[in-house]
C-alpha cells in the first residue's frame, strides 16, 4: 500500500490486498466518520469505485454523504423486477434531488423466463434453496455484472441489522467478486443515528419506512414488522434468521479474524 497526500491508500490493484492489509485499514478506520471513509475510498479508487444501492435508509445516508464529496461516483441498483412501487418512487426522487444517473442492472431475460416457466411465480416460498435460486437469478448474477470492472464497492450495511452481519468490517475483501474491496462506512451506526441524519439533512427516503418496513427488498419477500420485532423480521419471514441473506453480502473477509474493527 502506498502513501498519498498524508492519506494511506491502496493502489488500483486491490484485488491483491492481503488480509493483513485489510486488518490494518480497519484499525486505521476505528472511530473514523463515514465521511472520512468515503473520502478515502474516492481518493483511492476513483472511477473504479461504485455504490450499490437498494435505496433503503442507510443507502440514502451514504448517497447524501457522497453528494457532498467530489467527484461523483457510479450508483447502481439491482432491479429485480419484483420491487415495490415506493422503491421506484424514491429512486426517481434521488435522481432529481442529487442530479445523478442511476445504473440499473436487470436479471438475465432467459434466466427469468426459465425461472417463471419452470418454477412458477412464487417458487421462493417453497424452500430456502428455491428462495436462494431466485435471489441468485435476480440479484447475485446481476451484481456480478455490475462489479465486473470495479476495484471496490460501497454498501450501507450496519452490524446491528442482522444476525448475519454482526462481524462485518469497515473494509473487507469480497471473495465472491474477485477479491475486490467492499467498504461499509456505516458499520457501527445505529438505527437512530441513521434517522437523525436523514431528518437533519432532509434526505429523501422510501415511504415504506413510515409504514413499518425497516428493511426493504422485493415486494413479495418483504413485509412490515410489529413493534418489538427484529428489524429483519419482515424479510423472508418464513425462514430462520441465519439464512436471511440474498447472497449479495456473503463470504467477505475483513482481515481481523472475526473481531470487530
Ligand atoms: S428477494 Fe424474493 S423475489 Fe427478490 S430475488 Fe430474492 S427470492 Fe426473488
TrEMBL record:
<dbReference type="InterPro" id="IPR004511">
    <property type="entry name" value="PAPS/APS_Rdtase"/>
</dbReference>
<dbReference type="GO" id="GO:0005737">
    <property type="term" value="C:cytoplasm"/>
</dbReference>
<dbReference type="GO" id="GO:0046872">
    <property type="term" value="F:metal ion binding"/>
</dbReference>
<keyword id="KW-0560">Oxidoreductase</keyword>
<comment type="pathway">
    <text>Sulfur metabolism; hydrogen sulfide biosynthesis; sulfite from sulfate.</text>
</comment>
<dbReference type="GO" id="GO:0043866">
    <property type="term" value="F:adenylyl-sulfate reductase (thioredoxin) activity"/>
</dbReference>
<feature type="binding site">
    <location>
        <position position="134"/>
    </location>
    <ligand>
        <name>[4Fe-4S] cluster</name>
    </ligand>
</feature>
<dbReference type="GO" id="GO:0019344">
    <property type="term" value="P:cysteine biosynthetic process"/>
</dbReference>
<comment type="function">
    <text>Catalyzes the formation of sulfite from adenosine 5'-phosphosulfate (APS) using thioredoxin as an electron donor.</text>
</comment>
<keyword id="KW-0479">Metal-binding</keyword>
<dbReference type="InterPro" id="IPR002500">
    <property type="entry name" value="PAPS_reduct_dom"/>
</dbReference>
<dbReference type="GO" id="GO:0051539">
    <property type="term" value="F:4 iron, 4 sulfur cluster binding"/>
</dbReference>
<comment type="similarity">
    <text>Belongs to the PAPS reductase family. CysH subfamily.</text>
</comment>
<dbReference type="GO" id="GO:0070814">
    <property type="term" value="P:hydrogen sulfide biosynthetic process"/>
</dbReference>
<feature type="binding site">
    <location>
        <position position="218"/>
    </location>
    <ligand>
        <name>[4Fe-4S] cluster</name>
    </ligand>
</feature>
<dbReference type="GO" id="GO:0019379">
    <property type="term" value="P:sulfate assimilation, phosphoadenylyl sulfate reduction by phosphoadenylyl-sulfate reductase (thioredoxin)"/>
</dbReference>
<dbReference type="InterPro" id="IPR011798">
    <property type="entry name" value="APS_reductase"/>
</dbReference>
<dbReference type="Pfam" id="PF01507">
    <property type="entry name" value="PAPS_reduct"/>
</dbReference>
<keyword id="KW-0963">Cytoplasm</keyword>
<feature type="domain" description="Phosphoadenosine phosphosulphate reductase">
    <location>
        <begin position="49"/>
        <end position="224"/>
    </location>
</feature>
<feature type="active site" description="Nucleophile; cysteine thiosulfonate intermediate">
    <location>
        <position position="246"/>
    </location>
</feature>
<dbReference type="GO" id="GO:0004604">
    <property type="term" value="F:phosphoadenylyl-sulfate reductase (thioredoxin) activity"/>
</dbReference>
<dbReference type="InterPro" id="IPR014729">
    <property type="entry name" value="Rossmann-like_a/b/a_fold"/>
</dbReference>
<protein>
    <recommendedName>
        <fullName>Adenosine 5'-phosphosulfate reductase</fullName>
        <ecNumber>1.8.4.10</ecNumber>
    </recommendedName>
</protein>
<feature type="binding site">
    <location>
        <position position="221"/>
    </location>
    <ligand>
        <name>[4Fe-4S] cluster</name>
    </ligand>
</feature>
<keyword id="KW-0408">Iron</keyword>
<keyword id="KW-0411">Iron-sulfur</keyword>
<feature type="binding site">
    <location>
        <position position="135"/>
    </location>
    <ligand>
        <name>[4Fe-4S] cluster</name>
    </ligand>
</feature>
Amino acid at each position: 500500500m502506498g502513501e498519498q497526500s498524508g492519506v494511506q491508500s491502496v493502489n488500483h490493484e486491490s484485488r491483491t490486498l492481503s488480509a493483513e492489509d485489510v486488518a490494518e485499514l480497519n484499525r486505521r478506520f476505528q472511530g473514523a466518520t463515514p465521511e472520512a471513509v468515503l473520502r478515502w475510498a474516492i481518493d483511492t479508487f476513483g472511477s473504479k469505485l461504485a455504490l450499490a444501492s437498494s435505496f433503503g435508509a442507510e443507502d440514502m445516508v451514504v448517497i447524501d454523504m457522497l453528494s457532498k464529496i467530489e467527484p461523483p461516483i457510479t450508483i447502481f441498483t439491482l432491479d429485480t423486477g419484483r420491487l415495490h412501487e415506493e422503491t421506484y418512487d424514491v429512486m426517481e426522487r434521488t435522481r432529481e434531488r442529487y442530479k445523478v444517473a442511476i445504473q440499473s442492472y436487470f436479471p438475465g431475460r432467459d434466466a427469468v423466463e426459465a425461472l417463471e416457466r419452470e418454477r412458477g411465480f412464487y417458487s421462493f416460498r417453497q424452500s430456502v434453496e428455491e428462495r436462494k435460486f431466485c435471489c441468485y437469478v435476480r440479484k447475485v448474477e446481476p451484481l456480478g455484472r455490475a462489479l465486473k470492472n470495479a476495484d471496490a464497492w460501497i454498501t450501507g450495511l450496519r452490524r446491528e441489522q442482522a444476525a448475519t452481519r454482526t462481524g462485518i468490517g469497515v473494509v473487507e475483501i469480497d471473495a465472491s467478486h474477485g477479491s475486490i474491496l467492499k467498504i461499509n462506512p456505516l458499520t457501527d451506526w445505529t438505527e437512530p443515528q441513521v434517522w437523525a441524519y436523514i431528518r437533519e439533512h432532509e434526505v429523501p427516503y422510501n415511504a415504506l419506512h413510515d409504514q413499518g418496513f425497516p428493511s426493504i427488498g422485493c415486494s413479495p419477500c418483504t413485509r412490515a414488522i410489529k413493534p418489538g420485532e427484529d428489524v429483519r423480521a419482515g424479510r423472508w419471514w418464513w425462514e430462520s434468521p441465519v439464512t436471511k441473506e440474498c447472497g449479495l453480502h456473503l463470504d467477505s473477509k475483513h482481515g481481523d479474524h472475526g473481531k470487530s474493527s
